What does this fold into?
Amino acid sequence: MANVMKAPKRQLTYVTDLNKCIGCQTCTVACKKLWTTGPGQDFMYWRNVETTPGLGYPRNWQTKGGGYKNGELQKGKIPPMIDYGIPFEFDYAGRLFEGKKERVRPSPTPRSAPNWDEDQGAGEYPNNSFFYLPRMCNHCTKPACLEACPNEAIYKREQDGIVVIHQDKCKGAQACVQSCPYAKPYFNPVANKANKCIGCFPRIEQGVAPGCVAQCVGRAMHVGFIDDTNSSVHKLIRLYKVALPLHPEFGTEPNVFYVPPVLGPRMELPNGELSTDPKIPLAQLEGLFGKQVRDVLAILQTEREKKMKGLASDLMDVLIGRRSADMMISPLT
It folds into this structure.
């Protein structure tokens, strides 16, 4: 029998403008320092920023399966530890304090790690391209992890829609790891329990923005309640309709959205003429965000041109985000 989920009264929602993410990993570090420094969590990055196109973290997560197909829950694959990157250490003490002459090398020898292919992208100069894709738990409206859990350990908080794993109820079945198509629940081998992003709900309860959002130096992130018509997330998703979920075909109805990137045209054709083709192939963006991305790119281009001509654009003002308080719940860190 499928687990019964009560619809939340409100839904906390995130938007990231991929045109402003600079790949600095400040959000990654903020999340890591706050939540995953315990035993068995070395390899976990509840929040990570990966280069797209690329293998991602864990490797090849986009092909692991899970989610829903025709409304039916799908079983995916549990990524092996090598796909996350086996944690490694450096023998600094031996070199600095014990007189060892060998070079300081990581042990064990790393074969994979988060951002293993950072900044590689695709294509050849001068038309090579990539962009940064920050990822976290999507706190889905239809979370596959919740339905898959055999111990009813996963629930969606009534007050904010954040999806949480009840640690006392979790028995380490890993059904959530297997069923999430975004590979965002992690199995803690020390605690024998699943861990995942908790949406910084202790901060939300105090009226403070999540750590990843508050620390974003590129001012790329927005967070708020989708029913708040004054919030930037409501405006970007519902009013201007320029923010889209990642892989909507997975069927979980994510509550993390993205403003797709605009990188401009390719540099030159072989005959020396300028190209009108976009540097990022449209098919690539459609593969990530669905067919609607074409309309969104057209809206962004129109509004950008208005702003360049000195005309007013409410949408661009929201995206620029001159005041942190307009982009999020209290930005206090």
